[in-house]
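pipeline stage [seq->struct] | target=histidine kinase | organism=Nitrosospira multiformis | residues=538
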Amino acid sequence: MTLSSLSIESYAESERFQLFVASVTDYALYMLSPEGRVCSWNAGAQRFKGYTAEEIIGQHFSRFYTEEDRAANIPFMALQTAINEGRFEDEGWRVRKDGHRFWASIVIDPIRDTKGTLIGFAKITRDITERKRATEALHASEEQFRLLVEGVTDYAIYMLSVNGTITNWNPGARRITGFTQTEAVGTHLSRFYIEEDKAEGLPLVALQTAEAEGRFEGEGWRVRKDGSRFWANVVIDPIRNALGELIGFAKITRDITEKREAEQALERAKEALFQSQKLEAIGKLTGGIAHDFNNLLNVIVNGIEILAKQAQTPTSTRMIESMQRAAAQGTMLTQQLLTFARKQPLKQDKYNLNHVIRSFEPVLRRANKGSVEFDVKLDPLLPRVIIDAPHFEAALLNLVINARDATPDGGTITLSTERLELREKEINALLAGRYVKVTVKDTGTGMLPEVAAQAVEPFFTTKEVGKGSGLGLSQVYGTIKQFGGDMVIETAVGKGTAISLFVPALEGGTNEGSGGLTSGNEKALLVDDQADVLDITM
């Protein structure tokens, strides 16, 4: 190859490079003299800066800088950095011909000849204003999100690593769990789970579900720093990078203990209303039947009395006596039904229930046969109530006998009184005010929830045939309702039962009024379908 052909090829290569530089419009590509004056100008430079080649060649490149940067001698320092370090790269504001600013990415490289002498600079500028705006918008969005997360105190919002380690912590998380950021970050999310859930591997299941299905949501008990529990709603979302690779999880936890308790209270209120309406309907039906049955019994009893006067043989006398006993049992049964239906006539007066219980205590103690311990705990400052004392005593006796039957292997029965203030509908549908609470509690077998729900229904019993009529608790319930009060059953299988009677209290002192337990030479006919009830009352 000759020198002439090399020169032609070198010229052609230079020509192609100049055409390439001139055609580029996305970058400003131009040359600077060693002093920083513009020596060349391409289409991209003209598009970015607004100057034609004729307007700018020979001018100092510092004219593209802002007044602040020129005052700080930034253009000179840029060239010095390129000379000393072989390259200068930066971003900053630059100025167009019309005075508008744009955000530029700048690269300046020194150009040297074969002897290493500086002959100028190659400068590449790109307008990245839109990219900067997008970055600033992203930063602003991230800052807003950070402020949002840090400002939220009702939700625990934090990030987890792929293996479930906590990587950040917000004030809501601190408020709900009690852990500070220093205490929480770097620990595993399983620390908030109860032991039973950790033993079942629920923390890992939650992360696996979020990864596999794109989201995990659930509710359950969580543990605070002080060991107390709260009911939490938990949402876990997987976080993936641009390649779809899992890089962590976002976790949101909310303390919904109060919401859960409110829902449970509403459910209990609905159940109580349903039970009340059901018992009301049963009461109306029972009352009607008992009333009609009582009328029929009156005819039968009167007829038996006439027959008794006409009996002339021992056999007929025995038969009539059997009929009288049966009629008496029928009468007692109707009275129990009428009590449940709240149609039994009452003779009410003012009483201090402590006095009633103390006077009736010997009977109650005789009802506790075997190894059952009977304990009485009375509130000494009990207010008075209005009750029918004999009916109240019968209710107590029913409760004590039921408690005794529920403790066949021995145990403790506690009879207690307590004065208390109730809020509106705190106990079923009772009005707000002062009440006396009488509780019979045993340590016996307890009842299943479905049994407790039916316990006050007439004729419902879990005892063997012939061991009870199923009217005991229904009679107690009817009696207390007639007093204007209510009855609550608390029970659990294997833990015993507590039945509480709530009776409205009178305003005023604690002394018993004019009403009291009478004593004298009166006689009473005792009839009961349970022999032990007769035994303890004789």
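stage status: PASS
auto-comment: The longest strand covers residues 101-112. The chain has four domains: 20-128, 152-255, 261-340, 349-537.
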